[in-house]
Design brief:
Elements (H helix, E strand, L loop, with lengths): L15 H4 L11 H10 L1 E5 L4 E3 L7 E7 L2 E6 L5 E7 L4 E2 L1 H6 L6 E4 L3 E7 H10 L1 H27 L2 H11 L12 E2 L3 H8 L3 H13 L3 E4 L2 E4 L2 H6 L7
Antiparallel strand pairs: 1-8, 2-7, 3-6, 3-8, 4-5, 4-7, 9-11, 10-11
Organism: Undibacterium parvum
Keywords: DNA-binding, Transcription, Transcription regulation
Protein name: Crp/Fnr family transcriptional regulator
């Protein structure tokens, strides 16, 4: 059964500075601004399979991943699950809804046990009003996210399955949207299937092809990227 994060007990399990260690924007803040953020952001533990937030919720927080793995998705009127993005440690999301003060347009579910940071709207607005570096970061992040969403339309409508898996994996290594990782990623084949909207078996077949092309290596419990530019430009319609 999927639970809501609001029904999950808040847990203060990490030091404030640890919560922002992998967040690009936090490193840009003036000390007094970061101090306020550290005192006002709360942390919650979201078990695997539970909602961090749901479509239709009021948007009262900007949210970030301290540790774990979240999937942003929605269900079409036809019942098809559409995955928009995945967030790893250091990734923050929901700034568009915060700026527009609208209800949330998507579900966010934990694919594994995840610690989520919740920044109140008042804190978010304080940074908008007082921090030029924070505003610059948001502009860049919104631009990166727009590019990602445009590419997702291409992935879903124009690309074959192997290419879609390659591009969806590559998208997780965006330095603005997911700044916390290196070229090794602890991710299961089932999780790759979730983010690519394919079955675990089909994801496995695509990974075997990408490994054969020397774009990545499949490790126990994860993958290692060997050629990120090649993964981003891969197309099985144009074989070597």
């Amino acid at each position: 059964m999927i639970e809501d994060a609001k029904n999950i007990k808040q847990q203060e399990t990490s030091e404030p500075k640890e919560r922002f260690a992998k967040s690009m924007w936090a490193k840009m803040l003036a000390p007094e601004h970061l101090q306020r953020v550290e005192s006002e952001v709360v942390e919650r533990f979201v078990p695997a399979g539970s909602y961090a937030c749901r479509k239709g919720d009021s948007v009262d927080h900007w949210m970030g991943v301290i540790d774990g793995f979240l999937k942003m998705s929605s269900i079409s009127p036809e019942g098809k699950t559409i995955t928009f993005s995945c967030m790893l440690a250091g990734g923050w999301f929901g700034e568009g809804s915060m700026l527009k003060t609208e209800n949330r347009k998507y579900d966010v579910v934990a694919l594994r046990d995840t610690r989520v940071a919740y920044m109140p709207r008042t804190t978010f607005n304080y940074l908008l009003d007082n921090s030029i570096p924070f505003n610059r970061f948001l502009l860049q992040q919104l631009n990166e996210r727009l590019g990602l969403f445009i590419s997702l339309v291409e992935f879903d409508r124009m690309l074959d399955t192997d290419t879609r898996v390659a591009r969806c994996i590559a998208a997780m290594f965006n330095p603005y949207l997911n700044p916390g990782g290196g070229l090794q990623l602890q991710i299961s084949q089932e999780e790759i299937g979730y983010i690519s909207s394919v079955s675990r078996q089909r994801a496995n077949q695509a990974l075997q092809l990408l490994e054969k092309k020397k774009l990545l290596s499949v490790d126990y419990g994860g993958i290692t990227i060997l050629d990120l530019p090649g993964l981003r430009s891969f197309s099985s319609q144009f074989p070597d």
